[in-house]
Amino acid sequence: MAACADPPVLWQACPVTALMGIAARLKLARLIHILPDEPDAAGPLARASYAGGADAVMLDEDLAEVIADDTAALGLDAITEAARATQGLTAYLGRPVRAASLSPDLFVLADDEADPARTRKVVGEWTMIGRRCNSTAETEAALAHPDVDFLVVGPGLPLIRHAAEHAPQHDPKSKPWFAVGGITIESLPAVIRGGAMRAAVGGAITRASNPEAAAMQLKDILREAWNADERMEAVSASAFGTSPQLTFDTKLVPPADGRHL
C-alpha cells in the first residue's frame, strides 16, 4: 500500500492516515512543532503548523516553574482542537503525571531521571513515550529501552550522526527519532546530510512572520529528502504493517446446500 500523499487542500484529512494508529502515524511523521506553554498562542500556532504540514504539535511545559494552574491543559486542548482538521498528532513534553491527565498521542519525558517503564504505567499503553537525548549515552540507552517508542535527539550534528549510525532512518526496524536543537530552514539540509529524516522545530515556526509558510517549507525539505531516498519506501510500507492481500481471481464455490455466501 502506498503512503498517502499530502493533500492539496491542507485542512482535508488524508483518508488513509485518518484510520491509522498512533504508532503508524508516528513512524510516518517527519515534522514536530514544539510550542511554549502559552495557551493564548497555542491555538493559532497549532492551526498554522498543521495547515503547513506539521505532523505533530508538542506543548513544552516549563519544568522550572511551579505549575499550579491549567495552562498546560488549556494549551493541549487548543492543540487537540486544531489537530482534528488534519488528523495531526498531539504531543506533550513534561511530567508523566501531567501527561496522564492530558492524554496526548505522544509524550516526551522532560526529566532525564524518569523511568520509562514506570512512566508507561502512569500514562497507559496508548500514549507513545519519547525520550529527549542530549548525549550519545542517553541516545543508546533510549534506543535499547523497550518502553521508549521514539527519541528527540540533539543538539549538534555529532549527536545526530551518532543517532543515524545506531538507528539508521532507512531501517524499518529503527525507532523513529527527531533531530532537535535550533533547527532552521537554512540549517535543515545539513541536519539531513547528517542522517536525520525527521525534525522537531520550535522558533523557526513559532517566531516566523508566517508560521504556516515556515512549517510548509520545513516539511517540503523533509519530504523531498525522504522521497529521494528509495530505502525510505520500506519505512513507509512498514508503517502499515502486514495485512492480508486482497485477490480478485479466486472463484467462490457456493455451499452444497445452495445457500448464498
UniProtKB/TrEMBL annotation:
Xref: Pfam families: TMP-TENI
Superkingdom, taxonomy of origin: Bacteria
Keyword Ion transport tagged: no
Pathway where this protein functions: Cofactor biosynthesis; thiamine diphosphate biosynthesis
Keyword field: Thiamine biosynthesis
GO molecular function per UniProt: thiamine-phosphate diphosphorylase activity
Any one annotated GO CC term: cytoplasm
InterPro entries, per database record: Aldolase_TIM, ThiamineP_synth_sf, ThiamineP_synth_TenI
SUPFAM superfamilies in UniProt: Thiamin phosphate synthase
Residue span, Thiamine phosphate synthase/TenI domain: 108-205
Gene Ontology biological process terms, A to Z: thiamine biosynthetic process
PANTHER family from the UniProt entry: THIAMINE-PHOSPHATE PYROPHOSPHORYLASE, THIAMINE-PHOSPHATE SYNTHASE
Described function: Condenses 4-methyl-5-(beta-hydroxyethyl)thiazole monophosphate (THZ-P) and 2-methyl-4-amino-5-hydroxymethyl pyrimidine pyrophosphate (HMP-PP) to form thiamine monophosphate (TMP).
Protein name: Thiamine phosphate synthase/TenI domain-containing protein
